[in-house]
Amino acid sequence: MQLYTIGEAAQLLRVSTDTARRWADAGRFPTRRDGTRRMVEGAHLAAFCAELAREAAEDAGEASTSARNALSGIVTAVTLGEVAAQVEIQAGPHRVVSLLTREAVEELGLAVGVRAVARVKSTSVHIDVD
Fold first, then answer.
1. How far is Cα 31 from Cα 29, in angstroms, rounded to an integer?
2. Which residue, of 23, 41, 49, 98, is most buried by count of CB atoms within 10 Å of its CB?
3. Average pLDDT over the chain, rounded to an integer
4. In sequence order, what are the beta bridge partners of 79?
5. What's the whole-number mean pLDDT along residues 3-8?
6. Which helix (H) or strand (E) holds 17?
7. For the purposes of burial, counting CB atoms within 10 Å of the CB of 87, is it exposed (0-12), middle (13-18) or buried (19 or more)?
8. What is the pLDDT of residues 56-87, one digit of tens each?
9. 45-54, 57-66, 91-100: range with lowest mean pLDDT
């Protein structure tokens, strides 16, 4: 069973240690003591991450879709060709690059500075252990 300190949990949740501590104190996810440190079980942290994602999707009023990997961000670059286009989105620390038709870019009004959501659905996903 993987255990994380509150500081490690905060890094994974991309919040401050104080915020993670407040969430734990409020009962949003359980912790236990390991000597002087508060620890979070990996399974509990994973469930809380999924809960946060659901809450964010509900708050944003996202439409139902089968593509579960949605990365909200801002368009940082658009390269138009005669038929195809390349769009780059910065979604938090993640840079997403998509190739699509020029027509789709124009219909969606994609331009630098526009908020957009990259939805990823793939049969080939590579995962590395940190």
1. 7
2. 23
3. 87
4. 86
5. 94
6. helix 17-25
7. buried
8. 767 766 555 555 677 888 999 999 999 999 99
9. 57-66
CA dihedral 67→63→13→49, nearest 10 degrees, is: -70
Q: What is the pLDDT of residues 20-29, one digit of tens each?
A: 999 999 999 9
State which amino acid sits at residue 124.
S
How far apart (Å, rounded) are the C-alpha atoms in residues 27 and 94?
A: 30
Cα 96 to chain center, whole Å? Answer: 12
Residue 110 contacts by C-beta under 8 Å, 6 or more apart in sequence? Answer: 75, 78, 85, 87, 116
Report the alpha-carbon distance of residue 7 to residue 67 in Å, rounded. 31
Q: What is the pTM of this model?
A: 0.54
3-state DSSP assignment of residue 2: coil
